[in-house]
Amino acid sequence: MTTISANLQATKSRIAAAARQAGRNETEITLLAVSKTVPPPRLREAAAAGQRAFGENYVQEGLAKIGALADLGLEWHFIGPLQSNKARAVAEHFDWVHGIDRLKVAERLSLARGADRTPLQACIQVNISGEASKHGIRPDEAAGLAEAVAGLPNLRLRGLMAIPEPSEDSALARRRFAALRELRDALNRQGLGLDTLSMGMSHDLEEAVLEGATLVRVGTAIFGERAQA
Ligand SMILES: *Cc1c(COP(=O)(O)O)cnc(C)c1O
Questions:
Q1: Residue 228 pLDDT
Q2: Is 23 left (phi over 0), alpha (psi -120 to 50) or beta?
Q3: Helix (H) and strand (E) counts for the chain?
Q4: The pLDDT of residue 206
Q5: What is the average pLDDT across 144-158?
Q6: Are 113 and 91 in contact (CB under 8 A)?
Q7: What's this model's pTM, rounded to 2 decimal places?
Q8: Around Cβ 158, how many Cβ atoms within 10 Å?
Q9: Residue ranges in 54-125 assigned as alpha helix (H)
Q10: Which of 37, 98, 176, 201 to probe ligand 1 with, by most ligand atoms within 8 A of CB?
Q11: Measured from the CA of 32, which atom of ligand 1 is nearest?
Q12: Nearest atom (ligand 1) to Cα of 226
């Protein structure tokens, strides 16, 4: 077994254990392998171990890997901050986008995606940590943005994404994740039909799964520590 396949197994075991503790079925939770800074051969290794969904933060780096690994038929998620001038490339090449926090960017994504493709799967990023985070829409503005994004023709709004402030405090992490879940539930009571909670990373995936995550974004625990950029 390679290190990457062993790490994938260990990560899935953590997800399964947390799911059991929460009385959930582990099959409800998608593991997204976050591969920023990781070179293509190591993604190939993860794919050989059965990993299908990969997350990238930087457009140029992501496009290069999508090209290099096109033979594998992988699913690509853009999870970085989104700039309007990068919207076209993201809409054309990725399957999912997690960081929508402005209508203008969502409109550009929808336009660039076009009607001839399957819709781009989308999550709205919510700032659940208040002052501590600079990305994401304020929770009290999420409903308005969600309604607008749900109305765009070539996006399919799937749910919410959050990155809480880094913390060793497990109880705080759970409160942040619970807040995202409660917001998703409130939007669903307005009829939005959101099935995705994109939350939890290498250090806090258990807390996220306990609070209802349906997709965890895990880099370090699969590929090892990243070199400092
Ligand atoms: C880098 C990154 C991750 C993965 O973080 P790890 O701590 O390496 O698991 C998850 N989500 C986003 C948005 C990231 O930028």
A1: 65
A2: left
A3: 9, 8
A4: 98
A5: 98
A6: yes
A7: 0.97
A8: 22
A9: 59-68, 87-93, 103-113
A10: 201
A11: 10
A12: 8
